[in-house]
## 1
Amino acid sequence: MKKELLVVGDRVLITPEEGDDRTRVGLYLPATALDAQQVQSGLIVATGPGDAVADISSLDEEPWKAERREGKRAMQARIGDHAIFFRKAAVEITFENERYLVVPQAAILVLVRHEIDI
């Protein structure tokens, strides 16, 4: 049985880039950002539908009481974009021996998109 990884809400799934001061798409990340691991970059491999999800910062012993954000957000991030995002907002997961980061769209600082000429 084949498994499929589905991203929910207004989150994106990212394959992280590691250890360089310049991303694969040529953006320079200053040492101050890298040293403190404030930001990280990676390739977006999946996006959620943009539906609002509960505010996880309010989760405590009673997660069902979390306030739900209303509405649907337009997902600016697309599969194939390179993203620079706040590292502390990312959650690391492993799926079928691959390492990914799940990042809320709100934690993405910039996107680099390569438009294809047709």
## 2
Amino acid sequence: MLNIVLFGPPGSGKGTQAEKLIEKYNLIHLSTGDLLRSEVAAQTDLGMQAKAIMDKGELVSDEIVTKMVEKKLIEHKSAPGFIFDGFPRTVEQARELRNTLVDHRTKVTMVISLSVEREELMKRLVKRGEETGRSDDNEETISNRIDVYGRQTIPVTYYYDKTHIHHPVDGIGKVDEIFKRIVDVVEKNK
């Protein structure tokens, strides 16, 4: 099973690259944001637990998110692999993911993080905001989102550095150039 954790700060092109990886390797896209919305919309037990927490403005617990991830693993147990997007966001979630995957006789194959300088991220996201009208793509919000990524998610890459499966990839260039760099990493490490 090919299980890829894809990291990248807001504006790094992570979503675009995830879609290309899904298509090339026939992976199941596992986005915790999508999972939460789906479980809430379906009014499952997990979804209702998550909704009650989110309605208070709080973060859904690692335990609930991990259970949603596990449910998706069970639903797609014959898949060739998964691409994890937005999960894990904390070191505790990374540990939970490892344990959950071990329970399902698999593991994280590799962690790929897209590296893009802050100025470039700001430029990309401001431009996206102008083109799409997204209200969260303004300089103040963008700056905060990049800071949150640095505080919460960068430590997860250090966790994976210790297991020697973390591979930073230059996220600057044309989409296909970046994708080729990612594919080179995947092919060398799968």
